[in-house]
Amino acid sequence: MLRGMYGAAAGMIAQQQRQEMLTNNIANANTPGFKAEQASLRSFPNMLIHAMGTNSVPRGQAPAIGTLTTGVYLQERMPNFRQGDLMETGNNTDIALLQGVMPPTESGRPGALFYTVQNENGELRYSRNGNFTIDGQGFLITTDGHYALDTAGEPIQVDNEEFQINDAGLIIGEGGAAIAQLNVAYAEDPLQLVKEGSGLLRFEGEGELPTAIGNDAITYQLQQGFLERSNVDAAQTMTEMMSAYRSFEANQRILQAYDQSMEKAVNEIGRIG
């Protein structure tokens, strides 16, 4: 009975964590460049049950009754790096990154492209949010104040919004002079990137991601005046939230049933005789 209670409780915890993930997805349905997360649920190892009271049976030959499941848990949360739709804004500082052909990878998963930015501690981070703006010193920054970086890893100073950027990411000033090359980094395995909040991703591998600039095996396009939408499917996410809620309720009812049985065992069975 106690094993059943533990299994139901494990199911409730897993569905609660899944619900929190889905709630975060739906809350960021309008965040530019946001990548929805997916949950992977996994069951704990099953237990093989054998018959009791079989001392006369040779060891290891007791008849098996069957297996007993021991619950599930949320194994991992993985971002889905599928390309989001583009939305035209007309703002010069909005830049959408449109992925094209990606080279084949060992894992079989497609690679992904990212902007390189600098966080408040001066550390290198990656982002798909092209909703940039200009700070008081003329630097191109994200809306959260993180510097956009060029191929040399330096912040990009454009002075004002009157700049143009071509498909390859070359930024051109008012006089037609090249200012900088907006860096685009390539992640062969995007699952090595971990979300940090504010649209930033941290690379968990060694060193830093290589640039996609000059890599003939990678094609991409930068669109000025556009933003990449979140790739959250709101309708599907709402359906999954309802499914997680119902699964949570089902496990809750099972747990309540076990609790009532335990209450009877403690308060009533002891009175018999």
From TrEMBL:
GO CC terms on record? bacterial-type flagellum basal body
Highest taxon above the source species: Bacteria
Q: Which SUPFAM superfamilies match?
A: Flagellar hook protein flgE (SSF117143)
**Any idea where the Flagellar hook protein FlgE/F/G-like D1 domain is?**
112-171
The Flagellar basal-body/hook protein C-terminal domain, residue ranges:
223-267
Question: What sequence ranges are listed for the domain Flagellar basal body rod protein N-terminal?
Answer: 5-35
Task: Tell me if Signal is a UniProt keyword of this record.
Answer: no
Q: Which InterPro entries does this one have?
A: Flag_bb_rod_N, Flagellar_basal_body_rod_CS, Flagellar_FlgE/F/G, Flg_bb/hook_C_dom, FlgE/F/G-like, LlgE_F_G-like_D1
Question: Where in the cell?
Answer: Bacterial flagellum basal body
User: Which PROSITE patterns does the annotation name?
Assistant: FLAGELLA_BB_ROD (PS00588)
Q: Which biological processes are named by the entry's GO terms? A: bacterial-type flagellum-dependent swarming motility
Which keywords does UniProt give here? Answer: Bacterial flagellum, Cell projection, Cilium, Flagellum
Record family assignment: Belongs to the flagella basal body rod proteins family.
- The entry's protein name is Flagellar basal-body rod protein FlgG
